[in-house]
Structure formats: C-alpha cells, structure tokens
C-alpha cells in the first residue's frame, strides 16, 4: 500500500515511517521541517517539503498520486506554549488539519490516521485509567485544537465517506531499538530525555514542574508508551478503518510519577539526576493514564516495551550514540 505521512520527519512520525517500511509499504513524507529533521527520514523515502497551511500546495500533494491512506502527525504539540500563544495554536492545528482532510476528500483518499492526544481529557473529575467514553474537556488550547481536528474528521466521514482512526495517545517516549531514530526536539521539553541529559552531564539540573499535586509523591503521573509500540498501533488500526471510523485511547495503562521517572533514569544510567523544584505549568493535569482495552481487543495490539526502564534504556542509548541528535 502507498501511504503519506505528514510530519514524518518528527519524533513519532519518523518511527511510524520506519514501521510502515518494515511492513513492506510504500511511504512518502510531507513536512515543513520547522521542527522535524531531514536526517530522520530514511534514505530513498520521497519527501514533499510543504507547509499544510498552504491549502493549494497540500491539495497538489494529495492529487499527485493515488494514496491508500494518510497518517497525520504534523502539528504544534506543547501544552505550555499553547497556553502562552493560544490563538496561534488553535489556528495552526485547526487550519492544517482542515486543509489536509479537505484535500483527502477531494482526491478520494478514504483512510486517515490522526495523531490525537490525552490532553483532550481535562477537569478534576475523571476516571483513571481514562476510557474513550470519558468527558472531553481540554485544559489547554493544544488539547482543544486536537479535538477540533477530530470534529473535522467526524464530518469528513459523515459527508464524504473518509474513514479515520483518532489515536488519543498519552506520553510518547523511547527510541527505535535498532538505533535508526530517536527524540531530538530543539529545545527539548520532554522529561525523560531531559533527565538523561542531566545524568550524562549535559545539563546541570532538571526543573520539576509541580511537586504539590494530589498524587502519592506530589509530582504529576503520566502513562509513558514506547514510540515503537505507538507506531505498531498505527499500523494495526489501518485495517480497522476500511468500513468505519474509530477512536482509541493509546497507552500502557500504568502511570509513573515524575519522581519515578527520575529514579528510573538514575537506575538505568547509574548516574545521579540533580533536580530542583519549580511551579506548576498551566494546563498540566495531575494524572493521565490510558485505558487501551478497546484497542487491544479490536486489533490484538500489545506493547512490547511496556516497562519504564526499557523505555529509558532505549532513550539513553540513542542519546549516547547521537550526542548532537540529528544534523539539520
């Protein structure tokens, strides 16, 4: 099959490209390289250097060749930044999603897998782990913008027959176990790579945002899912959306606190991770853990890299082998 991966030069997108190639599919990448890396795209994979804000350029790509499906990862993705610049986040993620889905409908592309988020689930009253039936109540413009795209996909199905899978995943982490790809954000904002950089002596200390949450140790609790397991789920759901659209929450189903992440990095690396207290970040929930029962039952998906230490181990290896990340 032939698939287009938007944001395929980014962290999750690049790992999904590898999974598609490993499964024998024909893959192309669309990316504006504002945050992605050309070096993250495997050799021989066609690249469209296009910004999805450009509706005509987007339409040209979708009309270039027959596509069996699109996997959409290209978006702004930082909760804190969305609180500081809300209209930019809402506009960017909504318009790029709209342009892409409209182009898919116009050119007969009937399958879209959308990278959604656990940030849809806000509010103090919520079941844990979180099922797909939980109340959608975003605590940030980032989460709101993702839900806006989910609504675009709802209407694309109802009016144009475009089927979709919205994967509301939790905290993507880790690196390709074969060393082909990893995490390289500039600046880096994710807890595990930041803690590893402190362990490796590349940072003096880690700032821990919030130590007074209603959790067992006062720090936030998150469900970390290995990016390779995440990619596997994307491949599996392609078979689920031939006749219907689906929504799945995607995580390991177990939460780890920020302090437990630090302890895991210290355990795996054998080095101390210095950290200091910082205030809570606006938009951060105390606990986010996924109930992925539906995905497991429908697709047979089971995470292979489910323990925090395994996730940390692959991240550590990537950062040791690639101290400068990707070259731009």
Automatic annotation (TrEMBL):
Pfam family, one: Epimerase
Cofactor(s), by name: NAD(+)
InterPro entries, A to Z: Epimerase_deHydtase (IPR001509), NAD(P)-bd_dom_sf (IPR036291), UDP_G4E (IPR005886)
Keyword Isomerase (UniProt): yes
GO terms for MF: UDP-glucose 4-epimerase activity
Pathway membership, UniProt: Carbohydrate metabolism; galactose metabolism
Enzyme Commission number: 5.1.3.2
Gene3D superfamilies, sorted: NAD(P)-binding Rossmann-like Domain, UDP-galactose 4-epimerase, domain 1
Catalytic activity: UDP-alpha-D-glucose = UDP-alpha-D-galactose
Domain of life: Bacteria
Keywords on record: Carbohydrate metabolism, Isomerase, NAD
Gene Ontology terms: biological process: galactose metabolic process
All residue ranges annotated as the NAD-dependent epimerase/dehydratase domain in the record: 4-251
Subunit-level organization: Homodimer.
PANTHER family reported in the protein's UniProt record: UDP-ARABINOSE 4-EPIMERASE 1, UDP-GLUCOSE 4-EPIMERASE
The family this protein is said to belong to: Belongs to the NAD(P)-dependent epimerase/dehydratase family.
Name this polypeptide is given: UDP-glucose 4-epimerase
Organism in which the protein naturally occurs: Acetobacter syzygii
């Amino acid at each position: 099959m032939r698939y287009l991966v938007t944001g395929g030069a980014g962290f999750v997108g690049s790992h999904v490209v590898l999974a598609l190639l490993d499964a024998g599919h024909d893959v192309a990448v669309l990316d504006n390289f504002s945050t992605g890396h050309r070096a993250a795209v495997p050799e021989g994979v066609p690249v469209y250097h296009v910004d999805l804000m450009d509706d005509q350029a987007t339409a040209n790509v979708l009309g270039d060749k027959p596509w069996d499906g699109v996997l959409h990862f290209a978006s702004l993705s930082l909760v804190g930044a969305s609180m500081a610049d809300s209209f930019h986040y809402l506009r960017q993620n909504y318009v790029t999603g709209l342009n892409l889905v409209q182009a898919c409908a116009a050119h007969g592309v009937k399958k879209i897998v959308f990278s959604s988020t656990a940030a849809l689930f806000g509010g103090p009253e919520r079941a844990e782990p979180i099922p797909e039936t939980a109340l959608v109540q975003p605590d940030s413009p980032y989460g709101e913008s993702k839900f806006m795209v989910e609504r675009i996909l709802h209407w694309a199905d109802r009016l144009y027959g475009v089927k979709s899978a919205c994967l509301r995943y939790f905290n993507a982490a880790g690196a390709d176990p074969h060393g082909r790809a990893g995490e390289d954000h500039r600046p880096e904002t994710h807890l595990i790579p930041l803690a590893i950089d402190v362990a490796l002596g590349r940072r003096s200390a880690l700032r821990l945002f919030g130590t007074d949450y209603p959790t067992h140790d006062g720090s936030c609790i998150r469900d970390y899912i290995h990016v390779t397991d995440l990619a596997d789920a994307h491949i599996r759901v392609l078979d689920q959306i031939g006749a219907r659209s689906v929504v799945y929450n995607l995580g390991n189903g177990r939460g780890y606190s920020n302090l437990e992440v630090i302890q895991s990095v210290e355990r795996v690396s054998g080095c101390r991770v210095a950290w200091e207290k910082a205030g809570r970040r606006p938009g951060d929930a105390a606990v986010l853990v996924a109930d992925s029962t539906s995905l497991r039952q429908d697709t047979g998906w089971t995470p292979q890299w489910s323990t925090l230490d395994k996730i940390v181990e692959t991240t550590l290896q990537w950062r040791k082998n690639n101290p400068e990340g990707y070259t731009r």
